[in-house]
Amino acid sequence: MPRIYEPPRKYACTDKAHKTTWDVVVRYGNYSAFNGYRFTPSDYSLVRCNTCGVHWRTRGAYVAELPDAPRGDA
Length: 74
Fold this sequence. Notes:
- By secondary structure, the protein is mainly beta.
- The protein has a domain at 22-65.
- 0% of the residues lie in helices and 27% in strands.
- The chain is built from no helices and five strands.
- It has strands at residues 22-26, 29-31, 39-41, 45-49, 55-58.
- It is globular.
């Protein structure tokens, strides 16, 4: 049976040319089964590269400069 989804093989996008396509999926928080899938504030944000498809969590200051992902596009 062929694989339908291949997870990214790297942790974060390091290609500076892609930085213009990065957006923030979840800003300063998370949703997890541990807290009943409710939003929980956090120092970390979930960032996504729309060019290579990689996503990662970060506390980087650059998150404040990135746009939010369109709603329903997470």
